[in-house]
Every structure is written in C-alpha cells, then in structure tokens.
Amino acid sequence: MKISVIEQEFTKAYDQFADAIFRHCVFRVSDREKAKDITQVSFVRLYDYMSQGKEIENLRAFLYRIANNLIIDEYRKKKTDSLDRMRDEEGFDIGTESMKDIETKDEHGRAVALLECLPEKYREALVMRHIDGLSVKDIAHLTHETENVISVRIHRAIEKLQRLNVQTPQHG
C-alpha cells in the first residue's frame, strides 16, 4: 500500500507536534480527557486542511491556532473547569504521594489560579511563550498581532502576576 505525500507530511507533523499540543491543551483546560479530544480534533482538522491541498506556511502555528480555537469553543460551552476535578480524576491520594509531589501539585494549582486572574489575551500570550516555548514571532503569527504587541502583553502579564503573587498569601 502506497502512502501519499500528504499522509507522510501529516505523520511527520503529528510526531513532531502532538505532545506539545497535548501539553498546551492540558494546561489550558485542566482536564486530560478534554485535552486528548482537543488534540485529536486539531490533528483531524489539520489532515482535512492538508488533504484539500491548501498551503500551510507554519505548521506549528497553524496547529496551535486550531487548538486554541477549540479551547475557546470549550470555554464557551462550559465557563469553568476546576483544578479540583482534575486532581480527583488523577487520584489525588495523600497516602501515596510524597511531600514533594503534594507541594508540586499545590504550586501548580496556585499557578493556574493566578493565571486565571489575568485577562485572556495576557494569559494566552504568557502560556504560549513560557509553557509552550513558542517564540514571540510565532505567537504574533498565530494570533495575527504584531511582535511588539505580543512582547508588551507578555511583559504586562508577568508584572500583573508578580503583583498578584505578592497580594495572595501563600500556604505553609
């Protein structure tokens, strides 16, 4: 059976970007199953687009755009997803976890809570830059904004997070 060029390109894109797209989705929706679904649909849409013979300038940015649009659709369907539910689904069992694991989960929960205090555009730029590791140029391309606008958003997001972190008492 002969594999088409499109299938080869798609497989290469999947191998190269699936894990990063999944991590991005998990971080954004705080639900592993929804993140799996969003990742899968993102790649189905990529394949559909590729099979129509349409040109894709930047595959990585294109996939993030698809995933972000699906995440936005998900948020519209259900306004809030709780970190507590994610912990429950992952079996947050105090008896089997080390203190380090508990502290890490607590820090993650705190980080997510702080990020949720940011305006969506700031949060999106910050996550793409520091969680997903995208360049400012890639983020600008993905969001149809200038690199300067993205740099300013990231800078302001960090400043706001620092202010929020000082105002929010820490446990322990």
Question: What does this 3D model show about the protein?
Answer:
This protein folds into 2 domains: about 1-90, Rna Polymerase Sigma Factor, Chain: A, CATH 1.10.1740; about 100-165, Arc Repressor Mutant, subunit A (Orthogonal Bundle), CATH 1.10.10. The N and C termini lie far apart (about 60 Å). The radius of gyration is 18 Å and the shape is globular. The chain has 8 helices and no strands. It has helices at about 5-30, 30-50, 60-75, 85-90, 100-115, 120-130, 135-145, 145-165. Helix 1 (about 5-30) packs antiparallel against helix 2. It has about 170 residues and is mostly helical.
Q: How do you describe this structure in short?
A:
The chain is mainly alpha-helical and about 170 residues long. Helices cover about 75% and strands about 0% of the residues.
Secondary-structure blueprint:
Layout (H helix, E strand, L loop, with lengths): L4 H25 L2 H20 L7 H19 L5 H7 L9 H18 L3 H12 L4 H8 L3 H21 L5
Keywords for this entry:
Rna Polymerase Sigma Factor, Chain: A, mainly alpha, Arc Repressor Mutant, subunit A, 2 domains, 8 helices, 172 residues, 76% helix, single chain
CATH architecture of the largest domain: Orthogonal Bundle
Question: CATH superfamily of the largest domain, called what?
Answer: RNA polymerase sigma factor, region 2, helix turn helix motif
Beta-strand percent range: under 5%
Q: What is the number of helical segments per DSSP (H or I, 4+ residues)?
A: 8
Number of domains: 2
- The succession of helices and strands, N to C, reads HHHHHHHH
Structural class, by secondary structure, is: mainly alpha
The biggest beta sheet, please?
A: none
Overall morphology: globular
Q: What is the CATH third-level topology name of the largest domain?
A: Rna Polymerase Sigma Factor, Chain: A
The CATH class of the largest domain: Mainly Alpha
Beta-strand segment tally: 0
